[in-house]
Design goal:
2 domains, 60% helix, single chain, alpha+beta, four-stranded mixed sheet, disordered N terminus
Length: 328
């Protein structure tokens, strides 16, 4: 019986301490591909020039396709650079038909901007016409035939790309210093995103960022480890039984194995395992079942990573007020 319990303890430790490292490794896949290029976000705010929702979505979709076709698609790690647009009405007429139609001529403005420093890096415009029984249909009619895969838009994106590379090549010291300042304030995700946003095509700055990001990441996982061990210890102290062990173990399973306090997490798990085995032999199977499924644990971790990533991305997406200066 003791031998069986020992094997169960070993199995529990494997799932709590080894599986997290596998999850981290899997989440690194594709990182190099993302960093090898400049990725632009696309946003056409709801409030811009009263563009109807359907037309705004259509314009945004066409911009995303154009950016993707140019090899700059996909959300950037740090959404500093983005493409946005607005539409202005040049003419508006009502046709003498049955039913009467609203006919518009629009000027569409495209902008590639650095929304953090409030700089317009590249612009272009084009004219389009549309008609419909109401304004919404006229907007959609004007945008539907628009093809942004043309030399004018290509020049627009190339100019923006050139200036993004120029930005990192000339302001690399500032970017790295800013990330280190953020790290000193324990704003680790933003510090890491700032450095991770440097594209590989900016070779010198990219290599300097690689050197700088390691120590910041180590500080980040060490800080998180200390917090998680403290939380898990408090949970276990408040409920020193199989139920408390399950809750504390769920917290500890999120610790990066490379963190300096990882040994403290292992010690705490060992203490919990020993006490539960001694005091609650009947309930031990309950603790094991919470962690013995590798698939379930991996799924939990992937969801947790996704939730954190989505929250970070949503917090960083520019709002209308942040890009309003573009349209003034």
């Amino acid at each position: 019986m003791v031998k069986n319990k020992t094997e169960i303890m070993k199995k529990l430790l494997f799932f709590l301490l080894i599986i997290p490292s596998l999850a981290f490794a899997q989440n690194d896949l594709g990182y190099a591909d993302d960093m090898a290029r400049i990725a632009l976000d696309v946003i056409v705010p709801d409030q811009v020039a009263d563009i109807p929702d359907h037309a705004r979505s259509l314009l945004e979709s066409k911009l995303m396709q154009a950016v993707t076709d140019h090899g700059m698609g996909g959300e950037g790690v740090s959404p500093r650079f983005l493409v946005t647009a607005k539409m202005e009405i040049l003419t508006k007429d009502v046709t003498p038909t049955v039913p009467p139609m609203q006919a518009f001529t629009f000027e569409v403005y495209l902008y590639l901007v650095d929304f953090v420093d409030k700089n317009v890096l590249s612009t272009t415009t084009f004219t389009t016409k549309g008609a419909g029984t109401n304004a919404n249909r006229a907007y959609v009619s004007a945008l539907r035939p628009v093809n942004l895969n043309n030399s004018n838009v290509k020049r627009f994106l190339d100019e923006g790309k050139r200036k993004i590379i120029e930005y990192y090549n000339t302001r690399c010291d500032f970017v790295i210093a800013r990330s280190q300042a953020l790290a000193s304030q324990k704003m680790y995700p933003e510090a890491i995103a700032t450095l991770s946003g440097i594209p590989e095509v900016c070779k010198d700055c990219y290599m300097r960022a690689i050197d700088a990001i390691g120590p910041i990441y180590q500080e980040y996982i060490d800080h998180d480890c200390q917090m998680m061990v403290a939380v898990a210890s408090a949970v276990w102290a408040a409920e020193p039984n199989s139920n408390g062990a399950a809750k504390a173990g769920a917290v500890l399973s999120q610790i990066d194995p490379d963190s300096r306090c990882y040994g403290n997490a292992q010690n705490l798990i060992g203490q919990m395992a020993t006490k539960v085995l001694r005091d609650e032999q009947r309930d031990w199977d309950f603790v094991v079942k919470a962690f013995e499924s590798e698939v379930a644990l991996e799924s939990m971790r992937i969801r947790a990573f996704r939730d954190v990533g989505v929250a970070w991305g949503e917090n960083q997406q520019p709002t209308y007020n942040q890009v309003l200066w573009v349209f003034r």
